[in-house]
Amino acid sequence: MMALPSPRPGVNSLWAATGGPAPRLPALDGDATADVVIIGAGYTGLSAARHIAAGGLAPLVLDANAVGWGASGRNGGFVTPKFRLSLPAIAAAHGRDMARRMYELGHEAVDAVEELVEEFDIDSAGFARVGLVKAAHTERALAAVAAEADWMKAEMGDGHISLLSRDEVRAELGSDGFVGGALTRGPGCIHPLNYARGLAAGLSARGVRIHEDSPALAIRREPGAVVVETPRGRVRAKQAIIATNAYSDLTGATRAMQRTLVPFRSAILATAPLPPDLAASLLPTRRICSETRRMMRWFRIVDGRFVFGGRGAFGKADSPAAFAALRRAMVALFPMLADIRVEYSWSGLVAMTLDSVPHVGRRDDGLLFALGYNGAGVAMASLMGRYLAAFVRGETPDVGLLDARRLAPVPFYPLREPAVRAVAGWYQMLDAVGL
Ligand SMILES: Cc1cc2nc3c(=O)[nH]c(=O)nc-3n(C[C@H](O)[C@H](O)[C@H](O)COP(=O)(O)OP(=O)(O)OC[C@H]3O[C@@H](n4cnc5c(N)ncnc54)[C@H](O)[C@@H]3O)c2cc1C
Fold first, then answer.
1. 270 — pLDDT class (breaks 50, 70, 90)
2. Spatial contact of 267 and 313, defined as CB atoms under 8 Å apart
3. With contact defined as beta carbons under 8 Å apart, do 309 and 267 qualify?
4. Pocket test for ligand 1, best of 25, 46, 50, 75 (most atoms within 8 A of CB)
5. Where do the structural domains in the chain lie, given as residue ranges?
6. Is the pLDDT of residue 7 over 80?
7. Which of 251-265, 389-403, 411-425 has the lowest mean pLDDT?
């Protein structure tokens, strides 16, 4: 079986450099049949394959690139139950019961990661529930963090959040840049690429067909069937799942989904290994950390390196200027990193939706999808496979606000890029003046 010429540019990430061996998965060559053809081999597609196969149906997964080439192999590895829309905001707009269901979904999602890691024995993913520190950059932001923690306790009965004083945040982070914060127990961290590869290797060992270098070029309908065309073969299935998230415009086949998303580039830096004293003084508890600015930055320590993420370049490609700006932001918060070399810089696309939550379900009789994780998809995409499998079986599970019927197309789609720039610029200005 000959491999197709690889269309993928390498991702110069810490994860690629430290990742375990990639499973060897051939391109589709010839015609195949399946119960469900899944387009995209990130967490969404792989977890869908797991749950569909467990229900006794035959899935077949196609990826245009390699397993984990998309956001699933590039992300920060924060495993959190959060949505971009806060639960108090959900309660205010949709009622307390809806907020409760969303709260449950968030926690099911973190549990789903833990279950998959255990089921497939993915030790190299290093999943650990280290807890999340949210650091407040102003008194006003701290008051909002405290109000949300109170609300979570009173309305959701959530006892996992405790407030941190300025000194406690300084001790957690090793930075003077914050006025206080909150610690949430339960969220965790993971090696994102090893997690994706471990899922694929485990599924493949069970006989689930996964084909890399196999872009879906067209999705055709025939009576009672969906046919997905790839360069060297086609798959005929009863149903198809689109699991391409922010990369839905790679080919025309899934571009219709792209119209429901606004892609936003998120970037990450990883330093060289820190000198031992510095490694011991920064984030000594090894929790994952984020902050309260609208243009949020987040950080963690991985194998003695400082890993710092935030906004990437606008537009289609990376830019040295965006990485330089991210480095300046890192050094402003952690001046002790000024002389430390950055060894890896990379980025990827996150998929924003108009209502700030993902969506899952049916597009029509033959087509299903789950996407729009708004930058918080490690846990949620891992969970979505379970619900996709339920929809495949013809069930209508309660997915709260994630219901596919709520997904709205982006109005004035051609204007999305200037709109993203304008909103980001406005947020940066508000952050700069401390509002
Ligand atoms: C830099 C960055 C940092 C992030 N950090 C975090 C974090 O710390 N915590 C968190 O919860 N979330 C984070 N996210 C978001 C999270 O990574 C994503 O929400 C999640 O990985 C989405 O998984 P997915 O399987 O839906 O999509 P992806 O992993 O993007 O997979 C989509 C796949 O579809 C394939 N594809 C596209 N078109 C076709 C086609 N026509 N035919 C075949 N295959 C196709 C692509 O090759 C790709 O492999 C981050 C994202 C980025 C980019």
1. very high
2. yes
3. yes
4. 75
5. 8-131+186-264+351-435
6. no
7. 411-425
**Residue 312 binned pLDDT confidence (cut-offs 50, 70, 90):** confident
DSSP structure string for 156-214: H----EEEE-HHHHHHHHS-SS-SEEEEESS-EE--HHHHHHHHHHHHHHTT-EEESS-
8-131+186-264+351-435 placed in CATH 3.20.20.450? no
Q: Is the CB of 81 under 6 A from ligand 1?
A: no
Contacts of 250 (CB under 8 A, 6+ apart): 64, 215, 244
CB of 392 closer than 6 angstroms to any ligand 1 atom: no
pLDDT digits (tens, 9 = 90+) for 393-416: 999 999 999 999 888 777 655 666
Rounded to the nearest angstrom, the distance between the alpha carbon of 138 and the centre of ligand 1 is: 32
Q: Read off the pLDDT of residues 99-145 as tens digits, 9 standing for 90 and up.
A: 999 999 999 999 999 999 999 999 999 999 999 999 999 999 999 99
Q: Which two tokens stand for residue 247?
A: 């990369």
* Cα-to-centroid distance, 207 and ligand 1 (Å): 24
Residue whose CB lies within 8 A of the most ligand 1 atoms, among 378, 383, 386, 387, for a mutation test: 378
| Ligand 1 pocket, mutate which of 72, 360, 368, 383 (most atoms under 8 A from CB) | 72
